[in-house]
Amino acid sequence: MAAFVLVPGAWLGAWAWEDTTRALRERGHTVLPLTLTGLGERAGQATAETNLDTHIDDIVSAVDQHGLRNVTLVAHSYAAAPVTGAAGRLGSRLERLVYLDSAPFAEGMGMLDLMPPQAAEELSKQVADHGEGWRLPVPSFEVLGSFGSLAGLGEDQRDLMRAKAVPQPFGTYEQRLTGLAEPGPGVDRVVIACDDFRGMLDAGVPMLAFMNQPPWRRFDLSTGHWPMLSAPGELADVLHTTVS
Questions:
Q1: Domain containing 79: what range?
Q2: pTM of the model
């Protein structure tokens, strides 16, 4: 059985993985869903200094504190940035990297580099006007739909997100990854692609082309960008398959 460490995307906490965590544990796996600093039940720990390094340290510390080995590290959306930073620091404890609707970050890349300048400027304006200069407010679902497909998010899932999502410390978007260490060559590499990301992979988007080639293994999931909420059981099935 595997040891899964589940890292959620922006605005989310460990709560988002609840159903997927339950399903994986029922299959006998060890599962550690993470809440990064400043999010979920740790919202009160957020400060203007919370940044990408903070979240990288969170992941490494969680693996250390729980004494985990043979780790399958799962990165949803934004979490691709801190997971990429943490992966090289886990050494022989890391068995597998799973990028869920996301992709590894390159040295010197940050979240704001993934969007057009106008979109990055709009986020910065939201932070300045409504986030005290350092917090990125939770977007409306209309805006979230421009980041990724909302397919499968019914009213119950949307109500849960409205109730539990919290502003994202903007330093995690502004800081770029530096000093990356590569994971060992034996680390298994997996991509799980949902609707929009699957389309980009199928279209052969140049910056993602490597994920369609060995050593990468690809699994597709027919749902929107938040599968832990829209298709938690199906996501657990796919994650189980990656380690079987």
A1: 3-243
A2: 0.97
